[in-house]
Structures are given as C-alpha cells and as structure tokens.
C-alpha cells in the first residue's frame, strides 16, 4: 500500500493542462512570468478567478505563478472594467486564502486584496465585510500586525471614507 498522493488542486490541474497562458521563467536571480500572448488580450473571466484560487497553493511553481499572474493581470490597461464584474466570484476565493492556516497563503491573500482594491476602488466596499473578519483574526498575531495595519490603511485610501 503506497502512500496516497492527493489529487492535484484545481489550479495545479489547470496549469498542467496549459489553461493559464503564462509560464514561469527561471532567472539566475529572479523569476518572472512569460505570457503566451499579451496580458491585455487575455480574458479576465475566468483567468483572474483561477489565479486567485491559486493563491491558496503551497507548492512551487504554483505559488509564484498565481501571485505574480494575479498582480500582472491587474496592472493591464482597462483592468478596472474587467475586474469589477468578477468581484462576486473573486471575494469568496480571496476569503478562503485569508482564512488559510498557512501564513504565506494568508500573506499572499492580503497582498492580492490590496492589489484588487487599488484597481477596483470603492466597488470593493460592499464586499469588505466578508473579507475583513478573516483579516481581523490575524491582527493579534505580532508578525502580521504591521502588514495588516498598512493593508487596512490602503483599503481605506482606495475605497474612500465609506470603507
């Protein structure tokens, strides 16, 4: 009876099948992503949600591809208009990353939340109540206190006083 290996996660399976139009390029010092086509031309639906799901990964290269791909996709021109309709699907995925027991997954989720907030601005405000409960649970953890405080300040900056 060999050790049971867990089936690959949804993100790992999609990545393995080539469903994510970018690949990891190993540099001598720094890794980067190479896109098969311009990120501006990639449909955000479902790729942005898939990359957000990948934030919960704990194995290389999935951790890097999901984090960097999410960030680079949000930097393209017109990202605001493309990301806002996806918020109802992105929020539960980010919430799961923020609730994850792994500290690195939580950190990636927090970074992604701030990046998303910078792009969609006040559109995220209606969804914040779902996300902030998981963030507040980590606030008492010394290693995250400063990072969370900065993230909350940025959420307020991008979302306005209402947030």
UniProtKB/TrEMBL annotation:
<dbReference type="InterPro" id="IPR016024">
    <property type="entry name" value="ARM-type_fold"/>
</dbReference>
<dbReference type="InterPro" id="IPR011989">
    <property type="entry name" value="ARM-like"/>
</dbReference>
<dbReference type="InterPro" id="IPR019399">
    <property type="entry name" value="Parkin_co-regulated_protein"/>
</dbReference>
<protein>
    <submittedName>
        <fullName>PACRG-like</fullName>
    </submittedName>
</protein>
<dbReference type="Pfam" id="PF10274">
    <property type="entry name" value="ParcG"/>
</dbReference>
């Amino acid at each position: 009876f060999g050790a049971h290996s867990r089936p690959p996660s949804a993100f790992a399976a999609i990545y393995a099948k080539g469903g994510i139009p970018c690949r990891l390029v190993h540099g001598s010092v720094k890794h980067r992503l190479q896109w098969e086509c311009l990120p501006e031309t990639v449909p955000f639906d479902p790729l942005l949600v898939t990359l957000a799901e990948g934030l919960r990964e704990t194995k290389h290269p999935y951790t890097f591809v999901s984090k960097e791909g999410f960030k680079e996709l949000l930097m393209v021109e017109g990202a605001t208009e493309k990301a806002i309709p996806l918020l109802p699907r992105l929020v539960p995925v980010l919430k799961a990353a923020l609730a994850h027991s792994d500290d690195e997954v939580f950190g990636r989720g927090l970074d992604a939340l701030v990046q998303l907030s910078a792009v969609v601005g006040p559109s995220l405000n209606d969804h914040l109540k779902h996300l902030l409960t998981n963030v507040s649970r980590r606030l008492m953890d010394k290693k995250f206190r400063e990072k969370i405080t900065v993230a909350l300040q940025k959420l307020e900056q991008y979302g306005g006083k209402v947030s």
